[in-house]
Amino acid sequence: MSTGAVSLSTTASDLLSLTKPRLSSLVLFTMAGGMWLAPASLSPARAAAALLSTAGIIAAANALNCYLERDVDRCMKRTRNRPLPAGRMDPAVALWFAISLAAISLPALALATNSLTALLGLGSFALYVFAYTPLKARTWAAMFVGAIPGAMPTLMGWTAATGSIGAPALVLFAILYFWQIPHFVAIALFCKDEYAAAELKSLPLSRGDAVSRAHIVAFCAVLVPVAFALYPLRVAGPIYAASALVLGAGFLGMGCYGFWRRLGSAWARQLFYVSLLYMAGLFTALWIDGGTRVSRWMLR
Q1: Fold adopted by 166-300
Q2: What is the pLDDT of residue 29?
Q3: Cα–Cα distance between 189 and 193 in angstroms, integer?
Q4: Average pLDDT value for residue range 101-126
Q5: How far is CA 136 from CA 43, 55, 174, in A?
Q6: Range 91-97 contact pairs with CB under 8 angstroms and sequence separation of 24 or more
Q7: pLDDT digits (tens, 9 = 90+) for 164-209
């Protein structure tokens, strides 16, 4: 393989890493779930276009985040090998890559779906890049702002199919929003030293581990009835309802265990993985039970 081919392959790989593909794939999964559950449908071509254009918006936001936080990323073990802090890429390349993605993806989303979905996408992009990113260095409460764009794609999936916001869509948004808080706090607990080195604010650094564990328990507790609410709203059936209660009890139980035992980083890392299992299990149950339920509802 020629040197030029190797260089091109490395550049492509680095550009892809700027988009944070693992995080982006989780976000797209939740958007697809919102589309699937909505009491209306897009054609396969329009659904694919909506997902691709949303992927572009997410990628642009993540790339801009990498550009703006390149100096901070040098101080953290889990981010120091990214293309910008590692010095493998000119920051100007990352900036123009992000701007180009946003310039293409936002109009494409409006064409593929509707103006409401495009406005939600634009709002999420702006909040993530221009509010959440700079606030991380100023206040631990930035996580409450960052959870908004993190929860928005499931709402966008619903509005892409229906053109409107209904009660089930707001519940879907709330599930993603409340789930992110214990997820974020768990990361802040087991990465506390890295946050301190990068001079980023976090709940454990600002208020202590005990308050952080209390936040985890509180938001896990709220998440149980919020997730269950899709059942009385007739968006999902009994399989989902049972799954939501069991998964919610497991997530809350793990949080309570750490709270009462006053556990630290090892428990927080385990809770982080439990949070991922919770979300995967909940949306799998929605895909299995919710789609069938909605189909019957539409046919009545």
Answers
A1: Four Helix Bundle (Hemerythrin (Met), subunit A) (1.20.120)
A2: 83
A3: 9
A4: 94
A5: 40, 24, 22
A6: 91/67, 94/15, 94/18, 94/63, 94/66, 94/67, 94/70, 95/64, 95/67, 97/15, 97/18, 97/63
A7: 998 999 999 999 999 999 999 999 999 999 999 888 999 999 999 9
